[in-house]
Design goal:
- The protein has 335 residues and is of the alpha+beta class.
- The protein has a single domain, classed as FAD/NAD(P)-binding domain (3-Layer(bba) Sandwich).
- The protein is 21% helix and 35% strand.
- A hairpin with a 4-residue loop joins strand 8 and strand 9.
- Helix 1 packs parallel to helix 7 and helix 2 packs across helix 7.
- It starts with a strand and ends in a 27-residue tail after the last helix.
- The structure holds flavin-adenine dinucleotide.
- The site of flavin-adenine dinucleotide has 37 residues, from helix 1, strand 2, strand 3, strand 12 and strand 17.
């Protein structure tokens, strides 16, 4: 089949790698998003998301996407059942007192890594801004104004937070802004370990990964807003910025050097979705704050749908049939 992928971010690039084994695939990307160099992949999720993150891990290993493993510490109430499900997926987890944090935590090895996103998205792409208009059965796709509908058997829309900008149909997706801060402090462990602090409500991850004084931390409220069509980032007002930074500083003496953010996309239940929108158009979206954790897994599910007709009900698009409007909830990677 000839397949056109619209958006060459985490999902689009994963799909390119998987589908081009059996199909003729082209990725169209408007080059309006600057990806963060590395993002967390973690198996320390809940329910069926753990399986999805596990599929992503298989993808990273199969396509030799660079990753750096890190031990993580989870602070706060974590049920024994949840820890058991992490162990079932190969994570070695135990409760221990961590001197440099000054608290008991779940120490997890084999569950967390930083994925080299630039490596992941380095697939061949045609620079083009795509627009989709939909009829009852079929979608018409234009790339830089040129109608390319008949050049492909099917298209997959994977333009992340821009999905709703591109198509003339209402989707159960909403874009939002999310941010993190580069921090400098005394605890060099923070550049060697990942911390999920559910007591004070933030996460921290290495900035470089060598034990430098730098680390990255965040977990502010989501700010509902549309991404700019031209990609020129205009930072919104971040109302809880000082509050979140003060929570980080309460745990680890440090100062914020630079705050940076980008756009994410959520669904009514804050879990990703995939499915067929029109005879010639599929969609994968709603990866909110955990695209590197579950994105390649969603790409694998879509490949199974296209090539074998198999569906994973928990993530199927049809679960939102009839929902007209919704509010964004809490990100699902937070326990
Ligand atoms: C501050 C912050 C920290 C984060 N940390 C993590 C983390 O540690 N771990 C994690 O898993 N996730 C993290 N995320 C979330 C992650 O970045 C997203 O979930 C992920 O990027 C979504 O992937 P995607 O493939 O759906 O879309 P994207 O990666 O956003 O890709 C969309 C692509 O579509 C293209 N596009 C847009 N419009 C058009 C058009 N008209 N035509 C053609 N192409 C178009 C864009 O150029 C872009 O390349 C973080 C997000 C933020 C903002």
């Amino acid at each position: 089949m000839k397949i056109g992928i619209i958006g060459g971010g985490i999902v689009g690039s994963s799909l390119y790698r998987i589908l081009s084994e059996r199909h003729e695939v082209k990725v169209f990307d408007a080059s309006i998003k600057t990806q963060f160099p590395t993002l967390i992949h973690s198996l320390l999720l809940k329910g069926c998301d753990i399986e999805l993150a596990s599929l992503s891990l298989q993808f990273y290993n199969k396509y030799r996407i660079k990753r750096m493993d890190f031990t993580s510490y989870t602070l706060g109430e974590v049920s024994d059942d949840l820890v058991s499900s992490w162990r079932e997926h190969g994570v070695s987890a135990r409760e221990t007192y961590v001197d440099w944090i000054g608290e008991k935590a779940i120490e997890a090895k084999g569950g967390d890594s930083l994925v080299d996103i630039r490596n992941l998205v380095s697939v061949p792409k045609e620079k083009a801004k795509v627009e989709i208009s939909t009829g009852e059965k079929k979608a018409t796709v234009k790339a830089n104004g040129k109608d390319v509908t008949e050049d492909f058997d099917i298209f997959v829309l994977t333009a992340g937070s821009w999905n709703s900008n591109i198509i003339d149909e209402r989707l159960p997706l909403k874009p939002y802004y999310c941010w993190a801060s580069l921090m400098k402090g005394h605890r060099r462990e923070l550049d060697k370990f990942i911390v999920y602090d559910y007591v004070l409500g933030f996460y921290s991850r290495p900035a470089i990964g060598i034990g430098s004084p730098l680390f990255i931390a965040g977990d502010g409220d989501i700010i509902e807003m549309k991404p700019p069509e031209d990609g020129n980032m205009r930072k919104p007002e971040i109302k809880d910025r000082e509050l979140v930074i003060s929570r980080i500083r309460r745990r680890f003496e440090s100062r914020s050097i630079y705050v940076s953010g980008n756009f994410c996309e959520g669904t009514p239940d804050m879990r990703p979705l995939y499915g067929r929108l029109k005879d010639n158009l599929y969609l994968v979206g709603g990866l909110n704050g955990y695209g590197a954790e579950v994105g390649p897994g969603m790409a694998m599910l879509l490949e199974m749908m296209i090539d074998k007709g198999e569906e994973r009900k928990s993530y199927i698009l049809d679960r939102f049939n009839g929902i007209k409007d919704f509010d964004l909830g809490r990100e699902p990677h937070e326990l």
